[in-house]
Amino acid sequence: MGRRLAVLHHQTSFHPPDVRRAIEGTADLLWVLPDAPPDEGGRRLIRRFGTPVEISTADLDAAARTLAAAEPDGIVTFVDDHLVLAAELAARLGLPYHTPEVAARLANKRLQREALRRAGVPGPRHWHLPARLDPIELAGRAAELPYPCVLKPVSGSGSRGIVGVSCAADLVHAYRPEIEQIAEEYLPDDPQADPRFASYLSVETVVSRGGRDHAAITGRFPLAEPFRETGNFIPAAVDRAMHGPLLELTDAAIDALEVQTGVLHTEIKLTPRGPQLIEVNGRLGGRPPFVLRDVSSVNLFRAVVDVALGREVVSTGLASCDGVGYWLMLQPPCTARRVAAVAGLDELGREPFVDSVDLKKTPGATVDWRDGTGGHVVVVRGRVPDLGALTEAVAAIQRIVSISYEIERALDSEYGRPSLVS
Question: Is the pTM here over 0.90, yes or no?
Answer without folding.
Answer: yes
